[in-house]
Amino acid sequence: MKICIIFHSYSGVTRGIAEKINSACRGDLVEVTPKDNYSTLSAYSVGCFRARKEACDPISPDTIDVSAYDLIVIGTPVWAWKATPAINGAIAALEGCQGKKAVIFATCGSSAKDTLPIMKSALEKKGVRVCGEVTLNKSEISKNEKINDLISVIREASNGV
Fold first, then answer.
1. pLDDT at residue 161 above 80?
2. Is 95 helix (H, G, I), strand (E, B) or coil?
3. Which residues pair with 74 in a beta bridge?
4. CB neighbours (10 Å) of residue 139?
5. Is 63 helix (H, G, I), strand (E, B) or coil?
6. What is the three-class DSSP state of 135?
7. Would you tell me how many other CB atoms lie within 10 Å of the CB of residue 134?
8. Where are the domains positioned within the chain?
9. CB atoms within 10 A of CB 157
10. Is 133 left (phi over 0), alpha (psi -120 to 50) or beta?
11. What is the distance of C-alpha 48 from the center of its chain?
12. Which of 7, 74, 131, 149 has its CA 20 to 30 A from that of 13?
């Protein structure tokens, strides 16, 4: 079972969750970064505005070929109740994803609101079947119980491949 864990992390929170997933499930980590980095000010102004519009940032890596993987895991911080423009760009950059399964997760202060349904829809348009969705809010990020729930969802999805 090969797992690809794709994530964007502005503050390091989502990276920390992705690394815990990797430790438990032994996948390959792919950190997505915007080609034009956001400053603290522009993340909360331009970045949130672009997130609300569901815009895609140009990212590094330019493309993400997941054809060699059995399961895709994608994680994003929540900006203005939506996925970051970098994760929108990552979903657009997926190659070899037709027929794959995915688990998606979001880290947020309080509510992920529209984040996961929008990500799920974008993935389904690329032929990916989302079989698990987990939100971790500020109080849950530091609790192993919620992280273990996410890892259980990933393991369950990977066993069904």
1. no
2. strand
3. 6, 104
4. 10
5. coil
6. strand
7. 22
8. 3-159
9. 22
10. beta
11. 16
12. 131
Give the orientation angle of helix 13-25 with respect to helix 144-159, to 10 degrees.
50
- Angle at the Cα of 140 (from 136 to 145), degrees rounded to 5? 100
What is the reported pLDDT for 26?
93
Contact, 128 vs 100, CB < 8 A?
yes
Angle at 107 between CA 106 and CA 109, to 5 degrees: 130
Q: What is the reported pLDDT for 53? A: 96
Amino acid at 128: V
Question: Is the bond leading into 61 cis (omega within 30 degrees of zero)?
Answer: yes
pLDDT one-digit tens code per residue, 12-49: 999 999 999 999 999 999 999 999 989 989 988 899 99
What CATH homologous superfamily does 3-159 map to? Answer: Flavodoxin domain (3.40.50.360)
Residue 144: both structure tokens together: 């192993």
Give dist(CA 68, CA 77) in Å, integer: 26
Token code pair at residue 157? 């999805």
Residues whose CB is less than 8 angstroms from the CB of residue 41 and which lie 6 or more positions away in sequence, other chains included: none
Q: pTM of the entire structure?
A: 0.95
Contact 101, 33 (CB under 8 A): no
